[in-house]
Amino acid sequence: MRKETSARKRKKETRISLKGKREEKRIGLVGGSGLYSLPGLKITDEVSLRTLFGTPSDSYLLGNLSSVPVAFLARHGRHHSFLPSEVNYRANIWGFRKLGCSWLLSASACGSMKEAYEPTDIVLPDQFIDLTKHRASTFFGGGCVGHVSFAHPVSTVLLDALAAAAKAEGAVCHRGGTYVCIEGPQFSTVAESLLYRSWGVDVIGMTNATEAKLCREAGIAYASMALVTDYDCWHEEEAAVSVEAVLAVLKQNAGTANRVLANAVRHLDPDRPSDCADALAWAVLTAKERISPAAARRLALFLRK
Q: What are the CA-CA distances from residue 6 to residues 3, 17, 90, 205 (Å)?
């Protein structure tokens, strides 16, 4: 009999461990540009998932951070392989829910739209403007219609934890504000940047609004730690944003993010139901007997109550 390759053997072991293990509650952590791992994470398992929505960005690292059970995923893959529009957000969020996560903390790079928010600062947005065009941002469709409330897209419990952690770690942190989410991968034109500024937005990025929408449908509480790397291109006295400029700040931001996340999870209870656990209670419009079999399978993880 031909010897199994190490990769195939690892996948086989992963399936067995998931099937035989009681679903442990965890805090979900997703890292963006510059945050592909967590140095303080004591890894106990690495899980690769295949979902009805496709394959997540990478395998999930399970373990303990500050003695709290967590699941970590690199949003763009550990080698930064996916554009913001190529990230399979639905598979990523489904995977977090499958792994017992009711709370998700996000870390991502962003551009500042205000003079007072300087590179290396942290912004904790509590509102989003979604300008994305070419990505799936709902689990519904294909035989099941649902509409969740999204007026307040961010968990105040998680905002409290992040704000307190940032203060404890000595980071410059701005709580609240609006994150405008663009499709990318190009950075803004000057005209676009000035338009967004006229709307009063605080930061700009390419990922967080999509995650927040899917988390709400999945009943996962969500909050984002936006790490400022640049001033986009609106600032006349600063050079327009470039990859070179962003990379110069990312390393310092990653260190701050690691410390703040480790501090924040210390004050969170993975067993506590999220503050949007009942988001789907009155969201589904399609009668149960009319939901297509395919849609019922896709949504079973969220609708099993």
A: 9, 16, 28, 38
Instruction: Specify the number of domains making up the chain.
Output: 1
**Coil, strand or helix: which one is 281?**
coil
Burial letters 226-244, b for 16+ CB under 10 A, else e:
bbbbbbbbbbeeeebbeee
Q: In sequence order, what are the beta bridge partners of 127?
A: 178
Whether 202 maps to a domain, the answer reads yes
Which residues are known catalytic residues? 230, 232
**Cα 98 off chain centre by:** 15
Q: Where are the beta strands (DSSP E) in the chain?
A: 26-31, 42-47, 60-65, 68-74, 101-112, 122-124, 127-130, 173-175, 178-181, 203-205, 221-230
**Residue 240, in any domain of the structure:** yes
Domain ranges, residue 123: 6-13+22-303
For the chain, 305 residues long, give each residue's pLDDT as a single digit of tens. Answer: 444 444 444 443 344 345 544 468 999 999 987 787 888 899 999 999 999 999 999 999 999 999 999 999 999 999 999 999 999 999 999 999 999 999 999 999 999 999 999 999 999 999 999 999 989 999 999 999 999 999 999 999 999 999 999 999 999 999 999 999 999 999 999 999 999 999 999 999 999 999 999 999 999 999 999 999 999 989 877 666 666 767 677 777 888 889 999 999 999 999 999 999 999 999 999 999 999 999 999 999 999 76
The answer to whether residue 1 is domain-embedded is no
Please report, for the domain that includes residue 115, its CATH number. 3.40.50.1580
Tell me if 279 is assigned to some domain.
yes
Q: What angle do CA 216, 201, 263 make, to 5 degrees?
A: 55
Helix (H) or strand (E) holding 186: none
Indicate the pairing of strand 203-205 with strand 173-175.
unpaired
Q: What are phi and psi of 96, to 5 degrees?
A: -60, -45
